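Exercise: predict the fold of this chain.
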Amino acid sequence: MSRFLNVLRSWLLMVSVIAMGNTVQSFRDHSFLSEKLYTGTPEFVNGLQARTFGIWTLLSSIIRCACAIDIQNRTLYHITLWTFVLALGHFLSEAFIYKTAPLTIGVMAPLIVASFSIIGMLIGFQCIPESQEVVGARQKKRN
């Protein structure tokens, strides 16, 4: 396995652990979201929205941790990449379309993490060897 994939695995694990902390915080006290993320319209943040955010964050965390463990699984790798694309899309839309999350440090941090993760995963994808089934199927098509 390439050195880059090992670094990417460590990054995914670190991001996953941080997301677990955010999940716990979302369930413990929903004011966390209105004070750190959705500061543009804090009155929209309630317990239900915070728990939904927590479940979404927990699912993303589990997927990212699974990818860190089995980074050569291409399907899991794609799903993990999509978790970052969705997070980036969510925070960008909340900041620029809905205006519920102004660009504070609480919003910039997930935007930066998602952006760097997408770039890293796109680079890392080149390091993942193709499975033998894919190689065999490609050779059959040539014959």
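Check your answer against the key: The radius of gyration is 18 Å.
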